[in-house]
Amino acid sequence: MQKILKITVAAALAVLCTVPGMSQDKTIKRKVAIGRFSNETQYGKGLFYDKDNDPMRKQAMDILSTKLASSGKFILLERDDLDILVSEAGTEMNKIGADYIILGSITEFGRKNEGQEKVFSSIKTQTVEAGVSVRLVESATGLIIYSDEAKGYAETTSKQTLGLGGSAGYDATLSDKAISMALNTLVENIINKCMDKPWRSYILSIDDGTYVISGGATQGLAAGDNFIVYKKGKMVTNPQTGIKIELPGTKVGLVSVQQCIGDTPETEISFCSYTGGEINADNLADYYISDK
Q1: CATH class as words, domain 200-290
Q2: Which CATH architecture has domain 20-196?
Q3: How do residues 184-226 score in pLDDT, each as one tens digit?
Q4: The dihedral sign for the CA sequence 262, 83, 66, 73
Q5: Nearest CA to 140 among 178, 201, 99, 106?
Q6: Where are the domains of the chain?
Q7: Which candidate, 102, 99, 89, places its Cα nearest to that of 265?
Q8: N or C: which end of the chain has fewer CB within 10 A?
Q9: Strand duo 210-214 + 235-237: pairing
Q10: What's the pLDDT band for 36 if we cut at 50, 70, 90?
Q11: Which residues contact residue 157 at a Cβ distance below 8 angstroms, ignoring those fewer than 6 apart?
């Protein structure tokens, strides 16, 4: 009898902690922007090197973008001026329009050829090693919530016997494979960090009882979804680090999505109804929306 009672109480607590109208299997996609991704190595840098058109830098960004997009958990924001915005925004990175910003660099890159010559045969091996470093920045706070570095390796081998067999010419795909291998673990950690933290949105306006929030169908919002409205917590400064920290917010009510409109992830909005305590329409920046 006691065992049955415990299960019932646990189930009741789970229901109370669940946002009404939100499926626990539903994923709200996070908006991610890949900012500065630099090539810190000396590989391929000649007299007329242009860092803005570095092929290895673009290669790493393309691979990272593909891996994040294939997870189905992100909306990637492409901004030609993102590097400039990141440098100008400072700690106010939420103005960029992304939930998270990824900053990265290629820290190591090397290619070597090795061979073994025998009487009747020869073996040639090409090996590429790449090191990649990434930092994940939370736009709402400007804090780095994840930073790590990983290495990847790729090689190809050819063998000839009595002049027959494949020849080991320059293999350009090895750099792709090495960078991709280095990014594999980092991308998995980025996904886990982003999805573990609550999704956030903001109240844009209040008009005749209709609450307009940022975000829409592309992120996974739909009519009938309910989200918690919080009033932001007090900002305090850690005397040891000098970093400002936002204390946990206070729950004030719920918004229920009525309609989603917008053409792009950057311009999507949702019209909502609201139930709960009074919200100061003159200070909407003091509030935020969350799925947890």
Answers
A1: mainly beta
A2: 3-Layer(aba) Sandwich (3.40)
A3: 889 999 999 999 989 999 999 999 889 999 999 999 999 999 9
A4: negative
A5: 99
A6: 20-196, 200-290
A7: 99
A8: N
A9: unpaired
A10: confident
A11: 123, 124, 125, 126, 168
